[in-house]
Design brief:
- With 146 residues, this protein is α/β, with parallel strands linked by helices.
- The chain has one domain.
- It is built from four helices and four strands, in the order βαβββααα.
- Strands 1-2-4-3 form a four-stranded mixed β-sheet.
- Helix 1 links the parallel strand 1 and strand 2.
- Helix 3 packs antiparallel against helix 4.
- The longest helix has 32 residues.
- The radius of gyration is 16 Å and the shape is globular.
- The two termini are 24 Å apart.
- The chain binds zinc ion.
- The site of zinc ion has 5 residues, from helix 3 and helix 4.
Length: 146
């Protein structure tokens, strides 16, 4: 596995090997500021939310790390979906500063106008996820087209 990744030691070997396969394939997308990416697997995330059932990413730019947490839904996906999911999560690392700033601005806005803050917050999250997913899909399609 690319040395930038640090796999959670409790992950079953076959699942760890599968996650390494996808993470390694897209390690080139990790921004240069990010020095370590912790890879976690948690089987049971059945929240009914399609996105969070597959994977989630948390970043800490101050300390130069990110954590990608894969969930059981990832294992049920096709190869194509796993590739898109992995690229999607890695892209969140690059875009974390912008979305973190936006989320803080939405919180600040709540002190002035709660309903506007709620509306802007929902739109910001939806548009951010759409953009990340569009980029992930485009990258995987470009890869397929050589
Ligand atoms: Zn996302």
């Amino acid at each position: 596995m690319n040395p930038i990744y640090q796999m959670n030691p409790g992950v079953q070997p076959d699942i760890a090997a599968l996650l390494a396969l996808y993470c390694d394939r897209y390690a080139w997308l990790i921004p240069s500021w990010c020095q370590r990416v912790f890879v976690r697997f948690e089987e049971s995330q059945a929240s009914g939310n399609e996105t969070t059932d597959i994977a989630t990413t948390v970043t800490n730019k101050t300390y130069r790390w990110a954590t990608i947490r894969f969930h059981g839904g990832f294992l049920a996906d096709s190869d194509l979906e796993r590739r898109i999911d992995t690229v999607h999560e890695i892209l969140h690392i690059s875009l974390s500063s912008a979305i973190d700033y936006g989320r803080q601005a939405v919180k600040d806005l709540a002190a002035v106008n709660q309903s506007l803050s709620d509306h802007v917050g929902q739109q910001l999250c939806a548009l951010h996820e759409q953009g990340v997913q569009d980029l992930a899909y485009a990258i995987v399609k470009a890869e397929e087209n050589g």
